[in-house]
Structures are given as C-alpha cells and as structure tokens.
Amino acid sequence: MSTLIVPPVPPSPRDDAIQLHTAFKGFGCDTSAVINILAHRDATQRAYIQHEYRTMYAGDLLKRLASELTGKLETAVLLWIHDPATRDAIILKQTLTAAKNIEAATEVICSRSSSQLQYLRQIYHSKFGNFLEHDIERNTSGDHKKILLAYVATPRHEGPEVNREMAEMDAKVLYKAGEKKLGTDEKTFVQIFSERSAAHLAAVDYYYDSMYGHSLKKAIKKETSGLFAFALLTIVQCAVNPARYFAKVLRKSMKGLGTDDTKLIRVIVTRAELDLLYIKAEYLKKYKKTLNDAVHSETSGNYRAFLLSLLGPNQ
To answer: Which one of 80, 124, 185, 282 is separated from 275 by 20 to 30 angstroms, measured CA to CA?
Structure first.
C-alpha cells in the first residue's frame, strides 16, 4: 500500500501551478511550499500540474524546479514528479549509460512485474529513441546480460495461481543444475527465473527449502556470483516478499559510514505510491526502529522534510 497522503479535496492543478509559481518568485525559493504541494499529489495530479504550469507560464516545470532546487532535494523531487514508468526509464538510462551503476539498473529491472517492464520498454524507446535491450546489451556481459535480456523480454503470468507439481519439479531441476553438479548450469537458472511468475518462484523457494534444507537464496549465493547472483537474488526475494527485500535495501543505504542517498531516494520515491507502507512494517519488524526515524537521523533540512512527507506518519 501507498504511503502517499493526498488532501481529501485537493486543490485544482491550476491552483497548484499558481502556488508553485508564487513559491519560485522573488529572492530564493519557498521550498516548504514546493514540498507541501508536490509530496502530496499522486502521479496523475502531478502530470496535470505540469500541463497547467506549461499552459499558464509557457515554461517547463521540471526545468524551473531544477533551477530553483539544489542537491539531494533536487534529485529527489525531479525523480518524484514523473509517473512510475517514465521514472523507471530515466533511472535505467542514467544507471546503464551515464552513471554506470549497473547494480541499481539490475535492481529496478528484476523487481518489476512483466507488465510494468513491457510498458517501461515502450516509454524508454519513445523517450530516448533507442531500445532498452540495446543499452542492456552494450553495458552488461555474460550470464548477467542473459538474465536481464530474458527477464525484460519474456511475458510472465502475474496471478497468484501456482501449479504445485511444476513448482516442485522446478526446485529439483534447479538443484540438479546447481548444487548437485560440479559447476553450475546457468542456462537453466536463466530460463526458470525469467519465465516463471513471482507466485510460482515463491513456491519453488518453499519446495527447495523443504527438500534440501535451505532456501533457494542460499543456493544462489553458493552457486553463482557477482551481478548474475545479484539479479537472481533480487528476482527470488521480490517473488517471496518484496517489502522485506526493499527494507533490506533501505537499511543497507543507511548503514555504516555515510548514506547512499542515491539508493535511499530511488527506493522511497519509486515505492511510495506502491508498497511503502508494507516496507515500513517490514523495516520495523526486522530492525526494531521505524523507517521514519532511520531516515530522520540520516538526512537533514528540506531533503529530510521531503522524504518524510513521502513516508507518511511515523509508525
């Protein structure tokens, strides 16, 4: 569930555009006003605000925000303002070609559903003029490239139905392709992980554990490595419990010396309208601290205020 808090009777997009324009006028930007508006509007409302702003002021709201905001707040707001598919396309373009953060690109691809990826591919092509598969092809290699290309292109069932016999068979096939033999049959892992539904893979994980005494996750860590292992682990963990997976990613972004703000922003912004409420519950359960408190202690100023607005009440 979403953590986004939208006013029961939101102002019209025209009123929001006027308020934003007022916040930009004069010396310095009224950042609090910008946060109070944008952090409490859903994707459709944000799109209407951009349209109204363009109509009324003959300007691009994104460009204006980029000129008025700075640092991490600017990064977060400019990512947030887009609809989910466009946002994912922008993240993938940046992480595959510009920033070369291939782990982040892998996380985004391997945590999205088949239908999300099909739509994302269309947006990617219309926005950047080239195919997502081409950028994956050019910037990745080996088995990691194979799993990403297969995962992006293969349609998968998205319902909760599971054929238990087939799931049990897949668990046996994966065991034979990995732990049972010398070396690993990566092709089998790519095929099963790219073709099966999330519900099916969760069942495979269950049968694997009950037959061989440990999770599929443990087997992947033992039998594969690097970005290929990271892709498989992301797929299986998001199949079993996506909220727990993202709680761990958030914890990792704030653990130790310094904060990985890119990761922190990416997860909060991309999950706020989806399942951030569940992620918060998993975070509290696993780390005995609310996600709001963790973010509060790792951030400051308007950047902190924006992220906490997206996170909703501290619970």
So the answer is: 124
